[in-house]
Design goal:
The complex is a heterotrimer.
Chain A (H helix, E strand, L loop, with lengths): L1 H27 L8 H5 L9 H14 L4 H19 L11 H42 L4 H14 L1 H4 L2 H25 L2 H7 L9 H10 L3 H17 L2 H8 L12 H4 L10 H34 L6 H10 L3 H34 L2
Chain B lengths: L4 H30 L1 H23 L2 H42 L1 H16 L2 H17 L6 H33 L1 H7 L5 H11 L3 H29 L13 H6 L1 H15 L4 H7 L1 H27 L3
Chain C lengths: L9 H10 L34 E7 L4 E9 L5 E5 L6 H9 L8 E4 L2 E2 H5 L2 H9 L1 E3 L13 H5 L10 H8 L5 H8 L10 H21 L8 E5 L7 H17 L3 E5 L5 H8 L7 E9 L2 E6 L2 H10 L14 E5 L2 E4 L2 E6 L6 E4 L3 E5 L6 H8 L9 E4 L2 E4 L4 H7 L5 E4 L3 H4 L22 H8 L18 H13 L5 E5 L7 H16 L3 E5 L3 H7 L5 E6 L1
Parallel strand pairs in C: 3-8, 3-9, 6-7, 7-8, 15-20, 15-21, 18-19, 19-20
Antiparallel strand pairs in C: 1-2, 1-4, 4-5, 9-10, 11-14, 11-16, 12-13, 13-21, 16-17
Helix pairs in contact in C: 6-8, 8-9, 15-16
The chains are: A mainly alpha, B mainly alpha, C alpha/beta.
């Protein structure tokens, strides 16, 4: 079964990459240049990127040459293309896929893959930690912070003796800071990367790899979405029958004292003697299946970061620039690289799931 | 002056009716606010309304109109994109399911295509189709803003629908594993009815609606991002005159960017914070609309899923 | 004692009390430390006393009342049998008495007090700490990602409490090696079998009983709940379980609530454990308007009725009847050979007007055979003649669709909850069936098994809100409406109370009279052994 699945991934990768490269090479073949440079040079007063100028020229041509609208259109296109090319800075003009370019792209792909792997590992840990924290927090059934602030303030207002003690003020201040921090963190989790990046661009070097990794983890809603998914798995599992059996076996159900934060944030999360151990391992088992989807979402996020922030020397910035200059051979090579990365992830996740299944079927 | 008895009784009746109505309204409001999704829907609408009032007062007229039209365009694309994604997903699910029963070759082909779409990072797929769209706009093949918006929704839907297809196939599989499917089959009920009516409509529409809410959030995110990227990176390709205004493209404008950069400035100069809400309103409003909408949509989906125990 | 609450004052206290399920103004003695996790505060400090005998219970969901019973008795120190159709609320009542449902899910009131107050009481704490609850669906009540061995030894079961003896008894003195092999398995849907999973849960309960019997202090009996403990066991294993339970009980009485649909347990108790029959009570839960009621079920009602039952023979000359189904004497499936036996290997035959009963041990493959006949499961080797159609393992599914389903044969599946669309309304159950227009009126079918005066069934009611017995009857009626010459019934008495059992059996006799052939599998051996002619009873053996 797994062999069949891996074979499918391989075939798909080979077919799609070959197709992409073929299309790229085909599109990269030298095409006829502008119709006539000397004639067009004389029309430099025209701004062909302005729809008004184009409309005016078309109307003029139709006045002089009625019945020849097709010719007029192709002249307009040629003019547009010629004009665009002359406007391009010489260094950013047309380029073709050479060996050196290919290796340059390969280097970029490796850099992209490295960042991707680190972000994937961090989000996988982050997703589980956030979800477990939320679940435990809910089970603790503590009053919300706003209510605790209100109660503390009311106490201060009513009790004049208490009001004079500094530490009495620390409670609502601490709670307010924590609440604000939490609200900011939540907003950040849902912010697209470019909003965060532009917000702090003047203060930090937003082009560094470290910043990219950080942004990849916390922005674009990735962490929030998948932490919520994991949390839903925890919720669903907590309602299952085996949890009830664990309860009547008297496993601990205390979420206040037996679930310290240190245990929740651990890399390897284990909760011996607690009902939550049952819930957690089952939720984690389901979570593996969503890794594929999470990885695809993560790649989308990283692409957005590289493109929106215009980080030079990075794969997706290169993709965007080459799209702009219609260097399709390079564009499709980059696409083939990204496709390969996605397929490798899918194959990896399938293998991981298969290994998990084997683990539980082996006995 | 002594009032006639009938007038007193009428007034008493009226008071009683009003009191019943008040209690009824309060009860309904209580029921409505009991659910987290409703609460967040209310928060979203209220937040948007407050921002609208604020912008109406403090934002200059052209910028106000630009922000307003950008929000509605984005919302339109998101809603239409989600509906189209649902339609694509329903069609694909049927095609995949029935082809798997009748022709393995057709099934393999369809599976290959859907897997392929799934394997292309959404943003890249959308970007490539956007390049085509901008080409068409440049060649004046499309000029109407409504058509462009519909095409934008269509493009996003193409890369968003596989998730919904997966959900539908998962639901069918869930019922196939149980006696549900076989019990209906042996009763002579047609497979088409079992799949589309009994499973997808009767037993999965809550799940699908929840997915739809999540897809709306996804569509807002993708559309804002792609418009931002296109406006930043492919700006020479697009004339702002013929491309509809959206939150992403508005955020990419230089004055909006300046507004966002001001947030960074405020981090080290907290005294500047008051100016953010008066002098940098365009960018801040757009960024707020994107982030706040994404947060609220996520919370609504979360609340809805909890309410229906999905 | 004051309420132990998080937060300090007024609103907060009320709010958290409400979330814990308390009513307004009520003072809680102890607030559970964890509301969802069902942990109670300071059990050790609470003084245990004999448990309360009678409960007034009301359970509401957000949308409707699930249980409303004025008097639900559990006799202390006795074995309390509880019958009643499925879905009437037996399990929910038992779980609530045990304090298991999460308070935020349901509004529960005990003896006019809140659920939170009940859960913080000494009785509930004592039961949870020292009692046990065997849940009715063993598949979902074992953790699929933990070996059975590990699940047998955790929490309060971590120590050994004569485990080997318990397991040997429940496995009918099987080899230790075989039992050990089962314990090493991760419970998956098809492995180990439902019966094995059931026995593991029973073994856990017996460990807890042994723990109670060995304990020095206490001696105040906790509650042990067995919810459908034998649903996946054949009669032999069921009797082994009862034997062990009664043996433990003889050593020191404890309180048991045993929920079941298997009325034949009555005969087993009266015949094999007559010495303590005085310590056994039989009750039945039934619905009266919108409330539940609990009444004494006199065992004689069942035993007398059973004595009256005789097989309906009809035309004695079997050969003269039309042959509706003939299945070759063995079937190969999943690499296993299943053989039909009737005084030696024999073809399985069903003729018009006959009720044929296929018996087998638990997990032997009865349902599998039914599914193979109906073309729902591919066999490795199989041959049958169904009406004019010859069936074999090579036929495509389309053949069954075109010729068999709803034309030659119909099938009733054992779990009505799965077989029916729970989101549909009652009137929709008959929609989509290939019936003539005049036969689509649902009322005409419902009248057969539902008494409109005593048990009105609104057509617009959602199927999911019906009781289990009502669903099972609806499930039967849907297939009956097709009017096929042959009917295959998989556990047709599943989840039915005594009254409904009688109704369904009457319906089966009517169908026999109409000349329909019926093939059924059921674990209600005692009943069908009486009703089915011995000539029409087959055994399915795995080779």
């Amino acid at each position: 079964m797994i062999r069949q699945r891996l074979k499918e991934h391989l075939i798909s990768a080979v077919i799609v990459c070959s197709l992409l490269l073929l299309i790229g090479i085909r599109l990269a073949e030298p095409r006829p240049g502008p119709v006539t440079n000397k004639t067009l040079d004389k029309l430099d007063f025209l701004r062909t990127d302005d729809p008004l100028d184009r409309a005016l020229l078309r109307e003029t041509l139709q006045q002089f040459y009625p019945q020849q609208s097709q010719k007029a259109d192709s002249l307009l296109d040629a003019l547009n293309e010629y004009h665009r090319q002359t406007m391009l800075p010489p260094a950013r003009g047309k380029s073709y896929l050479s060996f050196s370019k290919f290796f340059e792209l390969l280097g970029m792909l490796l850099k992209f893959t490295l960042i991707y792997a680190i972000v994937l590992a961090l989000t996988t840990w982050g997703v589980q930690t956030l979800a477990v924290w939320r679940f435990v927090h809910e089970q603790q059934n503590r009053p919300p912070n706003w209510w605790r602030i209100y109660v503390a303030l009311r106490k201060l207002v009513r009790n004049t003796v208490e009001r004079k003690k500094i530490h009495a003020w620390l409670v609502p201040i601490k709670l307010t800071v924590v609440s604000l921090g939490r609200a900011l963190f939540t907003l950040m989790l849902f912010s697209p990367a470019y909003v965060i990046a532009y917000s702090i661009k003047t203060r930090f070097d937003t082009n560094s790899i470290l910043f990219m990794i950080l942004l990849g983890v916390v922005s674009n809603g990735l962490l929030a979405t998948y932490a919520y998914k994991f949390y839903t798995f925890l919720q669903t599992e907590s309602r299952k029958g085996y949890v009830q059996t664990a309860i009547v076996k008297n496993l601990s159900t205390d979420y206040r004292h037996s679930m310290p934060l240190s245990r929740i944030i651990k890399l390897r999360k284990i909760f011996p003697g607690h009902v939550f151990q049952h819930i957690f391992i089952n939720a984690r088992h389901q979570y593996f299946a969503t890794l594929k989807e999470q990885a695809a979402f993560l790649i989308t996020g990283l692409v957005i970061i590289e493109m929106a922030l215009n980080i030079q020397g990075h794969l997706c910035y290169e993709l965007l620039q080459n799209l702009l200059y219609k260097n399709f051979d390079i564009v499709f090579t980059i696409l083939a690289g990204i496709f390969l990365l996605v397929k490798s992830t899918e194959a990896g996740v399938d293998w991981l799931i298969h290994r998990e299944e084997l683990k539980y079927d082996s006995a | 002056m002594i009032q006639p008895e009938s007038a007193v009784s009428n007034r008493r009746d009226l008071q009683e009716k009003l009191s019943v109505l008040r209690r009824h309204i309060l009860k309904k409001a209580d029921e409505f606010l009991l659910h987290k999704d409703n609460r967040w829907l209310l928060i979203w609408i209220s937040g948007l309304f407050i921002l609208w009032i604020w912008d109406l007062i403090f934002l200059n007229r052209p910028a106000f109109i630009a922000v307003q039209s950008a929000f509605f365009n984005t919302l339109f694309v998101a809603l239409l994109g989600s509906v189209l994604a649902l339609a694509f997903a329903w069609l694909t699910t049927n095609a995949l399911y029935f082809s798997s029963r009748r022709s393995q070759h057709l099934y393999a082909g369809l599976r290959f295509v859907t897997d392929l779409i799934r394997s292309v990072p959404q943003i890249i797929g959308i970007l490539l189709l956007y390049v085509l769209l901008t080409g068409m706009i440049q060649k004046d093949m499309i000029t109407a803003s409504a058509t462009i918006l519909i095409l934008m929704a269509l493009i996003i839907a193409v890369f968003v629908f596989p998730e919904t297809t997966d959900l539908m196939l998962e639901r069918i599989e869930h019922f196939r594993r149980r006696d549900f499917f076989n019990a209906m089959l042996v009763c002579g009920i047609s497979e088409w009815r079992i799949v589309n009516y009994e499973i997808l409509w009767k037993n999965s529409r809550i799940h699908l609606f929840n997915k739809l809410i999540a897809v709306i959030g996804m569509t807002v995110f993708l559309q804002s991002s792609i418009d931002f990227i296109v406006s930043v990176g492919l700006s020479t390709e697009i004339s702002t005159l013929n491309f509809p205004n959206t939150l992403g493209s508005l955020l990419a404008k230089i004055d909006s960017k300046q507004d966002i950069l001001a947030i960074g400035h405020t981090l080290l100069n907290p005294g500047y914070v008051s100016k953010l809400f008066f002098n940098h309103l365009q960018g801040i409003s757009v960024a707020f609309l994107i982030v706040f909408s994404l947060l609220c949509i996520y919370r609504i989906a979360d609340g809805f899923a909890r309410r229906h125990r999905i | 004692m004051q309420t132990v609450l998080p937060g300090a004052t007024g609103f907060s206290k009320e709010r958290w009390k409400r979330r814990a399920g308390a009513r307004e103004g009520e003072t809680l003695k102890y607030l559970p430390l964890n509301i969802n996790g069902l942990r109670f505060t300071n059990f050790a400090k609470l003084k245990t006393k004999r448990m309360e005998n009678t409960f007034r219970i009301k359970i509401n969901s957000r949308r409707r009342t699930l249980v409303d019973i004025a008097r639900f008795p559990i006799e202390d120190g006795k074995i309390n049998f509880l019958f009643g159709e499925s879905g009437i609320g037996k399990t929910l009542i038992a779980r609530s008495i045990f304090g298991l449902p999460a308070p935020e899910d349901l509004q529960i009131h005990f003896n006019e007090k809140s659920y939170a107050a009940y859960r913080s009481s000494a009785d509930a704490g004592h039961n949870l700490e020292n009692g046990f609850f065997v849940f009715q669906e063993p598949s979902s009540h074992l953790n699929p990602l933990m070996r059975l061995f590990d699940q047998m030894f955790e929490g309060s079961l971590a120590k050994k409490y004569d485990d080997a003896e318990i397991l040997r008894h429940l496995w009918n003195n099987a080899e230790d090696e075989a039992i050990r092999a089962v314990l090493q398995v991760y419970p998956k849907p098809y492995r180990p079998s439902g019966g094995e999973k059931q026995r593991i849960l029973l073994a856990m309960a017996f460990k807890k009983i042994n723990r109670f019997l060995q304990s020095e202090n206490g001696r105040i009996s906790p509650l042990f709940v067995f919810d459908e403990p034998t649903g996946n066991l054949d009669n032999r294993l069921r009797n082994r379980f009862l034997e062990l339970l009664f043996e433990k009980y003889r050593r020191h009485p404890f309180t048991v609530l045993l929920i079941t649909h298997d009325y034949s347990m009555i005969s087993e108790v009266l015949e094999q454990h007559a010495d303590i029959a005085g310590n056994v009570t039989f009750r039945e839960l039934y619905r009266h308007r919108d409330q539940q009621r609990c009444r004494i079920f006199s065992p004689e009602i069942y035993t007398y009725w059973l004595k009256q039952q005789k097989p309906m023979t009809g035309n004695r000359n079997r050969k003269k009847r039309d042959l509706l189904l003939k299945v070759g004497r063995d079937i190969e499936v999943f690499g296993k050979r299943l053989v039909f036996e009737r005084n030696g290997p024999s073809d399985l035959e069903v003729r018009s007007g006959e009720l044929v009963y296929l018996k087998a041990a638990s997990g032997a493959g009865k349902t599998t055979v039914m599914k193979i006949i109906m073309g729902l499961l591919p066999a490795d080797r199989f041959f049958a003649q169904l009406g004019p159609c010859s069936l074999s393992e090579n036929l495509p599914r389309q053949f069954w669709r075109d010729n068999i389903w709803a034309k030659q044969a119909g099938m009733v599946f054992q779990h009505a909850d799965e077989a029916l669309n729970l989101q549909a309304r009652v009137q929709d159950v008959f929609k989509g069936l290939p019936l003539e227009k005049s036969k689509i009126d649902p009322r005409q079918w419902l009248n057969i098994l539902f008494d409109e005066k005593r048990e009105p069934l609104p057509l617009r009611r959602q199927v999911g809100f019906l009781s289990g017995g009502q669903k099972q009857r609806l499930n039967l009626l849907r297939s009956m409406a097709l009017d096929t010459p042959l009917l295959l019934l998989d556990e047709p008495l599943n989840g039915l109370d005594f009254e409904s059992i009688k109704k369904v059996l009457r319906l089966l006799r009517d169908k026999q009279r109409e000349g329909k052939g019926i093939l059924l599998v059921s674990h209600n051996e005692e009943i069908f052994d009486k009703i089915v002619h011995p000539e029409h009873i087959y055994y399915l053996a795995g080779k």
